[in-house]
Write a structure and sequence with these properties.
Elements (H helix, E strand, L loop, with lengths): L6 E5 L15 H6 L7 E5 L3 E5 L4 H7 L6 E4 L5 H8 L5 E4 L6 H14 L2 E4 L4 H5 L12 E2 L2 H4 L3 H14 L4 E4 L2 H8 L1 E2 L12 E5 L4 E4 L7 H7 L3 E4 L4 H10 L3 E4 L6 H10 L2 E4 L3 H7 L3 H28 L7 H13 L4 E4 L4 E4 L22 E7 L1 E3 L2 E2 L2 E7 L4 H18 L3 E2 L4 H13 L10 E3 L8 E6 L13 E4 L2 E4 L3 E4 L2 E7 L10 E6 L17 H18 L5 H10 L4 H9 L1
Parallel strand pairs: 1-5, 3-4, 5-6, 8-13, 11-12, 13-14
Antiparallel strand pairs: 1-2, 2-3, 7-9, 8-10, 10-11, 15-18, 16-17, 17-20, 18-19, 21-28, 22-23, 24-27, 25-26, 27-28
Length: about 600
């Protein structure tokens, strides 16, 4: 195949802008060896580069051949800036229009224009041509997400969207985010790892009917009955002709420039459609969980907490032998989760890192990297489950043997930041960017920090990473609304030695017990129920309010988890959740 281009850009992406990709779309990993969930490579005729964020700098150094690819931190040098420095007049840069959104293509065009180069959309991705054993696209069955878990019918969701379209004099809405489509149609699938998504595209019309573009091999009669007559099923190859028809009908169509592939915009432009570039309205709607979803999530977290408690008992009994590997520990935890009711799979690949591997923020353990868990070091386990009634994500840092004074100090500072977020009370309209400093302040006192956000949104039996809600210094501009679920996960990482992260999931709630409040106030409800490692806490760094929060949290954990576990785990829970503040005040009077 002759592309007639001088370079090509390879993002970690698929046609649907997913975080977790089906195997056939792992082009970046196939080309570079980098297995993280975010990154971009650029290959020119004389040089090549790969760009990752702070979560993956250590991982990329270990996985990528730096004699072939120069490695860059996305914040320090963006792909656009690198191209500006390396493109020259007359060169051409190729890209796959299915793998880039409209905004990124616009930036690429600007960079190429300034350099005197040309940006060319290719009809066939060259990676697909040379990847001889590339897996086939997934064809997993799609199933209904029952009303008992969804809380609101698909018909009601579609009617709300249709009403909004009519109010804006818009004929249709194109949805390309599989999570949005799954939420609107109350369906789930298994086309990608860790997230129950069926890959598809949908057009929602102002009469609430839907044209759904999906492989028919994934659908059975029961699902068609669930969807109803207003949902028309089409083969994905027919998308282009249906878009052309919209142009002939002089339709105005709403579509999200941040998530939709630029290929779709190209087709809409060719068809003469009136394009309304707006943020996908489903993203915000599905982030605000209804009462059924919230209660389901609480229930899922209780069962998940029971699995975590059993795991921590097992870990305590086996880790100090120095014969337990990170991989074995991760697999054991998965086994405990599999025994829980409504479990469907993991919500992401378990991060199981001991000692120096714990300092790799998004470390992925495999046969090659797995090390034995050693005594007197810290072990970090970040994991989660997908349940029919909710999605979980929890991180605990555990001392194996006796932690050093420095480890205790850093752990406690991370914990203080975690508690500051959990206890935060803030006015309606507050964004996650305004809260992020609360989690970092105690690390900043020593000139320390962590190179990731403090919290991300979480779905309801959907994505473990969900927008638009987040807690971060960068990009967290969405105001927090009651019903949103987020993570609360400050950390600290000492490269080559240890890592610390403490993560619970929290729900934004109305805070209405302030008698003198002059405005509507909000706070958080913690729904993760897993003991903290008391052996890592330096109590002298904690105030009375913080000690009380820990004791109250542990009291909840013991009360809600004990009925779900065996006698041995119940006994361990009593010790693991023993009061700190009560013991300290008692000691003062002894």
């Amino acid at each position: 195949m002759g592309l007639n281009v001088d370079g090509f850009i390879i993002p970690h992406n698929d046609e649907y802008n997913n975080e977790f990709l089906p195997e056939n779309a792992e082009r970046l990993r196939w080309l570079t060896g980098f297995g993280g969930s975010a990154g971009t490579a650029i290959v020119l005729s004389q040089k090549a580069a790969i760009f990752v964020d702070g979560r993956y700098t250590i991982q990329a150094r270990e996985q990528v051949d730096t004699s072939l690819f120069s490695l860059h931190h996305l914040i320090e040098l963006t792909p656009f800036k690198w191209l500006a420095e390396n493109l020259s007049s007359g060169l051409s840069l190729g890209y796959d229009p299915w793998l880039h959104d409209l905004n990124s293509v616009k930036k690429l065009k600007e960079v190429c224009a300034k350099a005197g180069a040309r940006l060319i959309a290719v009809d066939e991705n060259p990676i697909d041509v040379i990847w001889e054993d590339q897996p086939s696209p997934p064809l997993e069955p799609i199933f209904a997400h029952e009303l008992d878990y969804a809380g609101v019918s698909s018909k009601e969701k579609r009617e709300d969207l249709a009403k909004s379209l009519k109010n804006n004099d818009t004929q249709a809405l194109i949805l390309t985010d599989p999570a949005s489509i799954a939420w609107v149609l109350n369906i789930r699938g298994n086309d990608v790892p860790y997230t129950p998504l069926p890959l598809s595209t949908a057009i929602i019309h102002s009469d609430s009917s839907v044209d759904w573009f999906v492989k028919k091999e994934k659908i059975d009669g029961a699902l068609l009955s669930h969807l109803g007559e207003q949902v028309r099923v089409h083969d994905p190859d027919n998308l282009k002709s249906v878009l052309e028809l919209q142009g002939k009908n002089s339709s105005s169509i709403q579509i999200c420039p941040d998530t939709a592939a630029s290929w779709i915009f190209d087709q809409l432009s060719f068809a003469g459609v009136d394009i309304r570039k707006e943020v996908d309205p489903v993203i915000l709607a599905k982030s605000i969980k209804n009462k059924v979803e919230l209660e389901g999530s609480r229930s899922a977290h209780r069962r998940d907490g029971a699995a975590m408690a059993r795991f921590l008992v097992w870990l305590k009994a086996n880790a100090e032998s120095e014969e337990l590997s990170e991989k074995e520990a991760a697999e054991k935890l998965t086994g405990f989760r599999k025994n829980e009711k409504l479990f469907q799979g993991l919500s992401f690949e378990t991060i199981s890192g001991a000692g120096p591997n714990g300092a790799i923020v998004h470390y992925r353990v495999d046969e090659k990297s797995s090390r034995l868990i050693k005594k007197d070091e810290l072990y970090l386990i970040d994991s989660g489950g997908q349940y029919l009634d909710g999605t979980t994500d929890v991180t605990r840092t555990v001392s194996i043997g006796e932690p050093s004074d420095e480890m205790k100090d850093r752990y406690t500072r991370v914990l203080k930041g975690h508690i500051a977020i959990a206890k935060a009370v803030f006015p309606k309209g507050t964004t996650g960017a305004q809260l992020d400093v609360l989690a970092r302040q105690y690390l900043w006192q020593l000139g320390l920090d962590y190179d990731h956000g403090t919290g991300h949104g979480v779905g309801s039996f959907l994505g473990v990473h969900e927008g638009p809600q987040r807690i971060s210094r960068v990009g967290a501009y969405q105001e927090l609304v009651p019903g949103m679920i987020l993570s609360n996960e400050p950390g600290y990482y000492k490269e080559g030695e240890y890592g610390i992260r403490i993560e619970n999931l929290i729900v934004v709630t109305a805070f209405d017990n302030m008698n003198e409040a002059e405005r509507e106030m909000l706070g958080f409800e913690t729904i993760t129920l897993v003991p903290l490692d008391l052996n890592c806490i330096k109590t002298s760094l904690l105030g009375t309010d913080e000690l009380t929060w820990i004791d109250n949290y542990h009291s909840r954990v013991k009360t809600e988890i004990s009925p779900l576990v065996d006698p041995e785990t119940k006994k361990w829970l009593r010790s693991a959740t023993r009061p700190l503040y009560l013991n300290l005040t008692t000691e003062k009077f002894d």
